[in-house]
Specification:
This protein is an alpha/beta fold and about 550 residues long. A five-stranded mixed sheet has the order 4-3-5-7-6, with helices on one face. Helix 11 runs antiparallel to helix 18.
């Protein structure tokens, strides 16, 4: 019922006030300020944490981009161990930044790009929250959305990844971008013209598919977002068509951002995800195995079912370093409890919908999608870094789940606030390795190498050392004879024949590159290829990201 003309403007629900109303203008300005400033401040925070020197950066993120950009994909062999076969496309932007800008400037830009997660989470929260004056718009909703977005960027895993090259907080941009497209237009998806709705979800699917194409473990997010449409308050066929067109978008994004690499792997090795799933594709260049990392899998069925109770307080079960973040555990308990109580409250005709802190349709979609994502993660991966997009969304999800409790809205707000305070107060971020800022991100002092046109460098040991390869003369090929994919005495891996052929066809000089502790083991591996490492003729290669490396002379073992 419209208010009488004498009603003051402040009595109007905020979403029905004219755009020129002072409160709406202030809210729009505050929103714009957050969207602009949050990534920049996050970039400064990344600078304060120090320069990334993580193992994966030294093993393949730096080298893979260099190899793609300089045409070394067929020249080197296994320089980055098994990740030599990973899609390098997402490594390219970082490599270009860090190779052309001073390291601190590149670090700021890279961290600010990761800070776009905060902006996307803010848009999602602002579109779905009901809190605030009247219908929930205005300054209060903007402030709460901003607070949730900041919390999303300060999780134990997320903060540990800030400024790093693991990319889990970069592919999250595709996941959150897809969510923003869906949730900011939810009424049009469920009740608007079909053509516009299907085009919108296809665009969202394109973003999720891009994340999947760039980093394959992101498949869990594409599937979760796709299945989330099935619980929306819409006609059954409408739900199915929304899910279908989202899936079409996912396939398009996968093809655009991962198709070229899958085609390369199929052409060269007969397996589009080589070496993974080789028990299905049966490529002769890898063992008949799924190549799944089971090192982080739960020890029992009970542990898998209740996994958050285990890994939250024993983080080495799901990662390489220690950290603490309670939000996944809180959601693991809160979502089923809130859903059960909400259904019970509905059965007793309690008006739990009126107490919801967020839009009910958006709540159903997001919490269902997150439940699917987590279920797939605990079956397929159990590596916490892959769960970071879920960690970013967790503060908003906690608010949504609390809003399902059959209690008055004030009580739901108190529960959500208490849980968020507990979560944030107990965070201990991960640290995968940082060093003081250098002028350049990767610095290596390679000694002079004579006759580089006729020199091959072998790589031994299992440590991360490929980051120094760009510092060598570009015509030198690198062949890794020991790796987490292949050893010189491997059985059932046809790639070994390719490696032996390449080494055997080289008629010039050999050198051996390894860490100093790995030199003895590298020498034993070289003997299996008919080569002897002269451990008394080694030169040290200092570098700024890790321990010094050894570059040793190698000679062929005389044949009897």
């Amino acid at each position: 019922m419209p208010l009488p003309p004498s009603a003051p403007p402040s009595a109007l629900p905020s979403e029905s006030r004219p755009e020129s109303h002072p409160e709406n203008r202030r809210a729009r300005r505050a929103s714009a300020a957050f969207l602009l400033l949050a990534p920049l401040l996050y970039g400064l925070l990344g600078l304060a944490l120090g320069m990334d020197a993580n193992w994966d950066l030294r093993n393949y993120h730096w080298y893979n981009a260099y190899a793609l950009l300089t045409g070394r994909l067929g020249r080197d062999m296994l320089a980055a161990q098994m990740p030599s076969f990973y899609n390098p496309l997402l490594d390219v932007p970082f490599f270009l930044l860090a190779n052309h800008l001073p390291a601190p400037a590149a670090g700021f830009v890279w961290s600010a790009l990761q800070g776009l997660n905060l902006s996307l989470l803010f848009l999602i929260a602002r579109a779905t929250l009901r809190v605030g004056t009247g219908g929930g718009s205005g300054g209060q909703r903007v402030a709460i959305a901003a607070g949730l977005a900041v919390m999303g960027g300060l999780g134990g895993g997320t903060l540990g990844l800030l400024g790093t090259t693991f990319h889990d907080n970069m592919v999250s941009l595709g996941v959150l971008g897809a969510l923003a497209v869906v949730l900011c237009g939810l009424p049009r998806l469920t009740g608007g013209p079909a053509r516009g709705a299907f085009l919108r979800v296809a665009g969202a699917g394109l973003m999720a598919g891009a994340a999947m194409g760039l980093k394959n473990p992101s498949v869990i997010y594409a599937v979760g977002l796709c299945l989330g449409f099935l619980v929306l308050p819409a006609r059954p066929w409408r739900r199915l068509w929304l899910s279908f067109f989202f899936g079409i978008g996912v396939l398009g994004g996968l093809a655009l951002f991962g198709g070229f690499w899958m085609a390369h792997l199929w052409h060269d090795y007969g397996n589009p995800v080589f070496p993974h799933m080789n028990h299905i594709f049966n490529s002769p260049f890898a063992a008949i195995s799924d190549y799944v990392n089971v090192g982080f899998f739960p020890a029992s069925t009970l542990e898998r079912i209740l996994f958050p109770f285990f890994f939250t307080f024993a983080p080495l079960k799901v990662g390489e370093v220690a950290f603490l973040d309670l939000r996944i555990l809180v959601l693991f308990v809160l979502i089923p409890v809130a859903a059960a109580l909400a259904l019970l409250g509905k059965g007793f005709r309690l008006r739990f919908d009126a107490a919801a802190i967020a839009d009910i349709a958006a709540t159903r979609y997001l919490l269902t999608a997150m439940a699917v994502m987590y279920a797939l993660w605990v079956v397929m991966f159990c590596i916490y870094r892959y769960l970071v997009p879920l960690e970013i969304l967790a503060p908003l999800a906690i608010v949504m789940a609390a809003g399902l409790l059959p209690v008055p809205r004030r009580g739901a707000v108190v529960v959500a606030a208490a849980l968020l305070l507990l979560v944030q107060a107990t965070v201990r971020p991960a640290d995968w390795g940082r060093v003081a800022w250098s002028d350049h991100w990767v610095e290596a002092d390679v000694p002079p190498i004579g006759d580089s046109d006729h020199t091959m460098v072998l790589m031994g040991g299992y440590w991360a050392i490929s980051h120094v390869i760009p510092a060598f003369p570009p015509r030198i090929p690198f062949v890794r004879i020991q790796s987490n994919f292949l050893q010189p005495d491997s059985v059932g891996n046809g790639y070994l024949a390719l490696l032996k052929d390449k080494v055997g066809a080289h008629h010039g000089r050999f050198l051996m590159l390894s860490t100093i502790p790995d030199t003895a083991g590298a020498a034993k591996a070289a003997l299996l290829l008919g080569l002897r490492v002269d451990q008394g003729a080694c030169r040290v290669i200092p570098n700024n990201l890790g321990e010094p490396l050894n570059l040793c002379s190698v000679e062929r073992v005389p044949m009897d």
